[in-house]
Known about the structure:
By secondary structure, the chain is an alpha+beta fold. The chain has helices spanning about 10-25, 30-35, 40-50, 70-80, 85-105, 105-120, 235-270, 280-310, 315-340, 350-360, 370-380; strands spanning about 125, 140-145, 150-160, 165-175, 185-190, 195-200, 210-220, 225, 270, 275. About 45% of the residues are buried. The mean pLDDT is about 95.
Amino acid sequence: MWQTVYGDDHEAFRDAVRQFIDREVRSKLDGYAEAKGLPREFWQAAGRQDLLGLEIPAEYGGSAADDFRFTAVLLAELAAVNMALSSAVGIHANVVPPYLIHLATPEQRKRWLPGICTGDVITAIAMTEPGTGSDLAALATTAVRSGEGYVLNGAKTFITNGYSADLVIVAARTRPGAGAKGITLFAVPSDAEGFSRGRKLDKVGQPESGTAEIFLDDVQVSSDAVIGQVDRGFAHMMTWLPQERIATGVSNLAHAAQILDETLQYAKDRKAFGQSIGSFQHNKFLLADLVTRVDVTQSYVDQCVLAHTHQQLTPTDAAKAKWWTAQVQNDVLDHCVQLHGGYGFMNEYRVARAWRDARVTKIWAGSNEIMKELIGRDLGL
């Protein structure tokens, strides 16, 4: 279906992203998977192509696009090739920058934003902890006042880009017993004394995203490491989570749509009992159903992208987009594997890797169950 949400400038940018992927990425994907992470050369190449600072002001080396649709195009094109690329770049270029652009001091922005644009400073955000999962208000990492700064102690897990990040936005408790009202965000450089990384986590899918554990052992930071207001970190995170969730929705759907398109071609080419497997009524009806689901979902996602571009996307609508696209993505890819038969279970086939890569989308950025809880509350339930 024709997408009216994007204009000529967005489509020209889409062509540039595709050229970057063809030139710099496709031939290296197997190496990224083997290394369980993206090399610095990838980030610097993306920086040279001006892909990492779309929302960052020009004075810091960014594109100052002020239009979320460009970010949506970038993440969709990356997801269509490899879901982990979209995940890693999404954290670096979509999730972290708003905290620095809107909450950081001029000195902090000058210190970090130029390197984010060039890919010389790789970023991550550390919210999730081993014992709290989606319950951000219950996090146990502490930041205790010490002289002119703070001492941080705690552990974070499932941190995308965690193994290679130079700068990590860390959520820590500054007021014990205050629940959501006692959390503060800190910009912590990875070379700080007491900062360490655990192993590269051995995940079912998306090995390219460099996911790791992070440990903070008496990490001392000055007061100018605080991002935003002290004890207001939870509110800050809630402000920007909708952007992360609609970006996740964009990636989820682009990933599913691409693999479905490839499966449709496979169903036309693959023969059984003297005819293409797609011509059997069950498969024909199934593919008609899947294509319809993707197209209808795309319309909703496009409207959410447009709403966010105009700063009108509500947290509830972002939650709807996040959980629904994750469900559609996983349903579609499961059927795509089935349509490939035994080949769908072979790692050498793209559909098998895509199926594995997709499973986490129903868990991260707030699990689908948490999204439904948020929607239910908004219904007054």
